[in-house]
Amino acid sequence: MDWMSVVLMQNFICALIVSLGILLPDLYLGYISKMLTCTIPGTTLFGVVAFAGVLSFIRNRRVLGFVVGLIILTQTIQINHWAYFGAPIHSQDISKVFFELDEIAQTGASLIHVLWPVWLVLCASIAVILIGFSYTKNRKNLPYAWGLVVLVLGVTPVLSSIKGPSFFYTKPTSSTIYNTVRAFSDWIVHSKSKVKSHDYKPYTVAYGASKIKNVVLIMGESLSSRYMHLYGYNQPNTPYLDSLKNNPNFAYAKGVSSSVSTRTCLQLFFNTFHNPGFVECIRKKDANLFRLAQHQGYKTFVLSAQNEKLFHDTGTEFVDVFASEKEMRKDLDEKGDEALLDAMAALELGDKNFIIIHLRHIHTPFGGYAKYHPELVMATNHKNRASETQQEYSNAIAYHDYWVKKCIERVQKILLSDTIVLFTSDHGQLLGERGLFGHNQMQPEVADIPVWALTINADTALITPLKNQQVVSHYDLGKHIASLLGATVSNPNEHPTLQYVHGSEIYSAYEYMPWGKSVHGPAFLKNRWIGEGD
């Protein structure tokens, strides 16, 4: 064997070891532990080995370090997402990884018992890749091998740009590296692509006399109606809300969220958003609820237990008093969301008031309330992740029911009459259905939310619209709140039965779920993307 063959053998060995490192998460998590549903098709195996072979010829260490670092970073994001949510990361959700690190860290810490094999195999994967390059120091280098790497890395983004994002749906049965390349390629291309202009007609708003003096809207967090006893769940976790069922001042209905993420939901809800891609509705804020309230002489308040960044483009310029987690951090740390009740009691109210209370519970980790009320915690000794998570979630709903009781008692003390309290949640939650967890996924369960209303010494006819509907969407509720304020919002682009659950990145090309109202509740249709015949 001549020296050239020996040198090229080093490249071949490097390619095999690096390929093993890249595919190690799939091998262990997909085939051995079966934690993920991924497999390694022959084409993927060939592609990874070929790509690793090209990497073995790169001379410049900085270029090599950048490419390997990119592989490690994107794979780490992909595999952790897959292990937690039960599905590959979608291109729309990649940005959240970089802007919600604190929440990701809290969630990860609460699931160490589930995610530790993932972290261990990722460390092993990194070690194997590094060994592959360090062990084969005598491999042959080619001066322009980096150009071939750039060409290979650019193929998928180019195809994504040409064929559109729907062509690059991730596949939960394919390998992690396959889905990583697809998701990140689509993110690179379409995260910068603006929503195309539509021929939507502008909203019109007609003003009249307000119907009630005080509107209190509670915006919940990650609450699904299907896990609440009020809506038929088999655990008695909503005793207070259950006690209101036959109260003539109370009404409740199944709800459908406007979006699968908190930030987007708040933008859509407070701007009475309806049609896919109609971003002018948000920019102009013609039907913004805070703006309508201000026009009608209401004093407007927002008390949020979460980060103020979530209220970007919600119309906070029309809010008189805005207090977020930053302003109430100490009290929230000591009391949890009950600190919001103290903050509400301290408000300097006007003759008419529009008050928003934005909750943090039932955000993951679901047991976050336990340090404030350990007496509400029930045992969660279950054999699998799904049943344990569902029990933790049900426990959190029991705390939520307790919080709602305290909230209503506080409202009755400070707003004695002519008051309506409305509740909805930003989005729902997946708790093991089809092996999926969390939100930010375009699934019907994530859109499942509760909607209820309670009048306090006010005309009960104001809640009749909620009693007469099989399902109430965020859009329906937003228009109803506008009517309570004395503003009639007319959207000439409405469909009589068709509505939408929007994706989490509404300013770029995004996925949405159409759904139709029926006597049996919401009927979800096939998901679509902005630009596909919309």
Shape: elongated
Question: How much of the sequence is in beta strands?
Answer: 5-15%
Distance between the termini: 64 Å
Structural class: alpha/beta
Q: What strand order characterises the main sheet?
A: 5-4-6-2-7-10-3-11
Number of helices: 17
- Cα Rg: 26 Å
Brief overview, please?
By secondary structure, this protein is an alpha/beta fold.
Describe this structure as you would to a colleague.
This protein is of the alpha/beta class and 534 residues long. It has 17 helices and 16 strands. The chain has helices spanning 3-32, 42-55, 61-85, 94-99, 101-110, 112-135, 145-163, 176-190, 239-243, 262-270, 280-284, 289-295, 329-335, 338-345, 385-414, 464-467, 474-485; strands at residues 204-207, 214-220, 250-256, 299-304, 321-323, 353-358, 419-425, 430-431, 437-438, 448-456, 471-473, 487-490, 498-502, 511-518, 521-524, 528-529. The strands form four sheets. An eight-stranded mixed beta sheet has the order 5-4-6-2-7-10-3-11, with helices on both faces. Strands 13, 14, 15 and 16 form a four-stranded antiparallel beta sheet that branches. Helix 7 crosses helix 8. The longest helix is centred in the first third of the chain and has 30 residues, at 3-32. The protein is elongated, with a radius of gyration of 26 Å. The mean pLDDT is 88.
